[in-house]
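Please, structure for the following, as tokens.
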Amino acid sequence: MDVDKLKAILAALEGTDVTRLIWVSGQETLDLRLGHPPPATTAVHAVPMAAPITGAVHAPPAANPNPSAAAAAPHAAPAPVKPADDKKTFTVNSPFVGTFYRSASPDSPSFVDAGQVVKKGQVLCIVEAMKLMNEIEAEQSGRLLDALIQNGSPVEYGEALFRFEPV
């Protein structure tokens, strides 16, 4: 995709109520999500790019959670639940570099809390990457033992976000 085309698309979306745009041209697919994803959305889509985009691209301002506001009013984290055997636990890792959020907004409750049983496909958190809010889903069912990352903290690719025990 041409950087100028991408800039034109982003400029056209600026100031509108559009929160998601899927654009397909030949074998190229562009899936844009602006602001917070709606709570009912549970899919994370990886979009292959035909060629890497170089240069600075400025996205329209999105309603992003303010990390300093999140730090000023953190969610009370319950005490982690201890597993019977550490060898029977699994982790959910970050699929990319970004900022970790346990809820859709600073005023919303966490998607999951320690001790809660989650089902495959249930939203666990959001990782903001390049101004896009990406919901991270459970790949299998399990009981949350502990959240390993603090809300609003940066995360690296492959970094463990949560620890679960299978149910």
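Residues 37-42, 55-61, 67-79 have pLDDT under 50 and may be disordered. The chain is about 10% helix and 30% strand.
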